[in-house]
Design goal:
The complex is a heterodimer. By secondary structure, chain A is mainly beta. Chain A is about 5% helix and about 35% strand.
């Protein structure tokens, strides 16, 4: 019974969905990181396709913003380069890249549970 | 012969009977008793009245010295009572749901009669309690009052201080504004940073931090699950624990023989420890102790009411999970930790706070000298060491944080090393090591554990104050180092 009581506060099912729909690829401008409104993701699009970069700082979870020099975190001053690699500040790990797929209606769906290499491109 | 002429009525007229009845009721519920005159009555008034019997019926006159206790223990307990009462009032309107938390808090501020006033009192009493609890710990430490068998009560006190901080932390998610959301996001990720150590050592699969964050938030992000958990912790679990520990704390004071006092305050110098010999030194608590407490409580009430009238508790814009404030600052008493985690999440947020708590907890068992018990700083040597340690703590903080701020905490050259090195060697841990080294040095020169503990506590205290001040006044947008006043940013939080 005690074990059951200890297990109770660890939820088995998550209330948030791990799949995020972020619209059509063509709506994102070329050769730049565009912040997706409502989800903490950047979309980078070039001639090869799109890649999805997390905007969550790997230090303590604030949201970074894109700037000339890369990505800045306002909470503790971490700085990341254009590939999401840490340049300075307390963050030790690079920003995450996520797996994306194209649904039948052409909308991009990002799977927040699947991390991929930065070179992984979704062809569109 | 009617009813009015019955025997009982003629002996006890109606008014007299009512008097007996009301005084009996008052006696039964033990709220107030009238007119004790004799010693026996004064003693019984305390022991037989619920609200008074928390106190001993006899105390040592030294315990009433205002410059000794500073009234800080009573003040802290009073703050808890104020927070409970105002907290229950706020619960009348507050709704712990993501959709309604912010709007119900705004209603309390702008619509509910006296809502703003009650919320302000709650907020400033919470800040006040952090101040009084920390100062109370300083008072107990510097007068050596953890000694003479009071180690357990010192530990309970450390627990109460942690509960105070946890209650503050859980409380500020509830308004669901920008401050709430990002403070708790950062706090939960500091808890998850425990896993940085196994991860850096190569045990990626060992992830206790993730489990801890899941327990705290009920999810991977701050949302409805987190709000209801924090609400539950804030209004039920932590206050109950706090009330229980406060009761234990008070009870231990009496079991430990009252407040500490210097040896020369004992008038009957004969057999120390024999109950009869000390009883002669004691005076009745009624009424002097209660007058003293009433004075402290009245002053605190006045200060709280004035603060609540003059200053509004902040309520920022509604939480936006896609854009933190810049800079996103925690309330002032957590800015020391925020400054330290800006060098290393694990070092500043996990390792150093753990070491500091452990260091504080073991003080009574490291120092068993009872040197200068009940005297501020023990003796002139202790006072000298305290002053020197304050200077040492100041120099160490500037010497460690100065270069760290000047050079930046760039990891470009650090990343070439093993990932364990920046986790274990960073400004936070270096500062902790210097403080520990200083305490060791003082022990080697004085051969006194009391002096070593004075060195440790004072240097730590000064370092904590300075680091907090840097986070509060010297950090601007993107957590950049700025001199105060060079840009306009809100440091009032």
């Amino acid at each position: 019974m005690l074990a059951a009581m200890l297990r109770l506060p660890f939820p088995r099912v998550r209330s948030q969905s791990d799949l995020v729909k972020i619209g059509r690829a063509v709506d994102y401008p070329l050769y730049r990181y565009t912040f997706v409104p409502g989800s903490n993701l950047f979309v980078y699009r070039d001639r090869k396709g799109v890649r999805i970069l997390s905007a969550i700082c790997t230090h303590l979870g604030c949201v970074v913003r894109a700037s000339e020099s890369g990505f800045h975190c306002p909470c503790h001053g971490s700085l990341f380069d254009h590939h999401g690699d840490p340049l300075s500040g307390p963050a030790g790990r690079p920003l995450e890249w996520y797996h994306a797929e194209r649904a039948l209606d052409g909308v991009l769906v990002v799977d927040l549970t699947r991390r991929v290499s930065r070179h992984r491109v979704l062809k569109v | 012969m009617g009813l009015h002429d019955s025997g009982a009525s003629s002996r006890f007229p109606f008014r007299e009977r009512m008097k007996v009845l009301t005084s009996t009721v008052a006696e039964r519920i033990a709220l107030w008793r009238r007119g004790p005159v004799s010693y026996r009555d004064r003693s019984r008034r305390v022991s037989r009245t619920f609200f008074f019997h928390f106190q001993a019926s006899r105390i040592h006159p030294f315990s009433l010295t205002p410059s000794y206790t500073l009234g800080l223990g009573v003040l802290s307990a009073f703050m808890f009572v104020v927070l409970t009462v105002t907290g229950v009032l706020l619960m009348v309107y507050y709704v712990p749901s993501v959709e309604r938390a912010y709007s119900s808090t705004a209603d309390i501020m702008y619509v509910v009669p006296a809502g703003r006033y009650v919320r302000n009192i709650h907020r400033w009493a919470a800040h006040g309690m952090v101040v009084t609890v920390v100062l109370h710990m300083c008072r107990v430490f510097f007068t050596g009052s953890y000694g003479a068998g009071r180690g357990i009560n010192w530990l309970i006190g450390i627990g109460l201080m942690m509960l105070t901080l946890l209650l503050s932390f859980t409380g500020y998610l509830l308004p669901w504004d920008q401050l709430s959301y990002w403070a708790v996001t950062i706090g939960a990720n500091i808890a998850a940073a425990i896993s940085d150590l196994p991860a850096a050592a190569g045990f990626e699969s060992l992830d206790p931090g993730r489990a801890l964050r899941l327990l705290l938030l009920g999810s991977q992000v701050v949302g409805q699950d987190a709000l209801i958990r924090f609400y539950l912790l804030h209004i039920v679990l932590l206050p109950l624990l706090m009330a229980a520990l406060i009761g234990l704390h008070f009870w231990r004071i009496r079991k430990d023989g009252g407040l500490t006092r210097p040896r020369n305050a004992e008038r009957s110098s004969g057999v120390v420890g024999a109950p009869g010999s000390q009883l002669r030194d004691l005076i009745l608590s009624w009424p002097v102790l209660f007058w003293a407490e009433a004075a402290v409580i009245s002053l605190a009430t006045a200060a709280l009411l004035l603060a609540a009238y003059a200053l509004d508790a902040p309520l920022l814009s509604i939480a936006d999970p896609t854009a933190p404030e810049n800079p996103a600052k925690a309330p002032w008493y957590f800015l020391g930790v925020q400054e330290l985690v800006s060098y290393s999440a694990f070092g500043g947020g996990v390792l150093v706070p753990l070491l500091l708590s452990l260091g504080l907890a073991i003080i009574p068992w490291v120092d068993r000298e009872d040197r200068g018990l009940g005297i501020w700083f023990s003796d002139p040597e202790g006072a000298r060491i305290t002053v020197r340690s304050a200077v040492a703590g100041m120099l160490a903080t500037v010497a460690v944080l100065g270069p760290a701020i000047g050079l930046g905490t760039g990891r470009t050259w650090l990343r070439a090393m093993h990932p364990l090195i920046p986790l274990l060697i960073n400004p936070a841990t270096i500062l902790a090591a210097i403080v520990a080294g200083w305490a060791g040095l003082v022990y080697r020169t004085t051969r006194s554990t009391r002096c070593a503990m004075l060195a440790f506590f004072t240097a730590t205290l000064i370092a904590v104050v300075l680091v907090t001040a840097i986070g509060l006044w010297f950090r601007g947008p993107d957590w950049q180092f700025l001199l105060p006043g060079t840009t306009a940013w809100n440091s009032a939080r």
